[in-house]
Amino acid sequence: MASLGLYHLLFFLILQLSTGDDPIGQYCDNKSFKNNNLHVSINAVLADDLTAKASIGGFATTSSGHGDTLLYGLAQCRGDLSAEHCSACITNASKALPSLCPIQADERVWYDYCFMRYDTSNLVGDSDTSYALILYNVENATDPEEFDKEVGLLMSEVRAMAVKQENGGFGKGTSEFTPLVTIYGLAQCTRHLRPLTCAQCLSSAVEEYFAEYCTHRKGCRVLYI
Q1: Among 1, 16, 34, 135, which residue's CB has the most CB atoms within a 10 Å radius?
Q2: pLDDT 10s digits, 51-73
Q3: For residue 127, what are the β-bridge partners?
Q4: Can you give the pTM of this predicted structure?
Q5: Hey, is 174 helix, strand or coil?
Q6: Model confidence over 152-203: pLDDT tens digits?
Q7: What is the annotated signal peptide range for this record (predicted)?
Q8: Does domain 19-125 have CATH number 3.90.45.10?
């Protein structure tokens, strides 16, 4: 995938990547925007600004409105995504949010390679681990105990990469479990997070969800936003 919370962290463990125009998850809080017409207008401004900025640098924050109508926005692409594919993913996200969360003031959408969120709270600063999207492969690995050990070692490595400031909150790696099975691991925080906050957010994903949802699984993702 980091925080936005303010906001996000992205943590993934993946064996297989897929592409597509459809979101892999969304979240619409019960907070509603009182003036729907104004909400639509502000969302459009956020979408245009985030798409333009994130398409260039892979990450962007912005805001629009005043007082009770002030909304903050954040968007980020996966750290190894090209500018062209990042732009396409962010564009899809900006188009999807209005229909997914038409009246909500806290709107979030995840794609395989990017995510976007609008909220009345400032999304820059601390991590937000209040909601997690968890996706996992229903199939278990062969030799599951050894597999989990290898996954643990790999994820420790990519987490260490992600918390280094020079890596922009992004880490990925591979491990050859057998001659026929390669494990892919990835960890990502939103770029505005300090290294310590990034590390705490990633640790939260592992400690709170890994044992329950990811043990023995051939693939698993835990995403905050």
Answers
A1: 1
A2: 999 999 999 999 998 887 889 99
A3: 7
A4: 0.85
A5: strand
A6: 999 999 999 999 989 999 999 999 999 999 999 999 999 999 999 999 999 9
A7: 1-20
A8: no
Give start-end residues of each CATH 3.30.430.20 domain in the chain: 19-125, 133-224
The amino acid occupying position 75 is A
Q: Which tokens sit at 131?
A: 């909601």
Burial of 37 per CB tally in 10 Å (0-12, 13-18, 19+): exposed
* pLDDT tens per residue, range 6-34: 223 333 443 334 445 799 999 998 877 77
**Is there a contact between 144 and 180 (Cβ–Cβ < 8 Å)?**
no
Two tokens, residue 140: 């278990």
CA distance 49 to 208: 34
The Cα 128–Cα 8 span in angstroms is 6
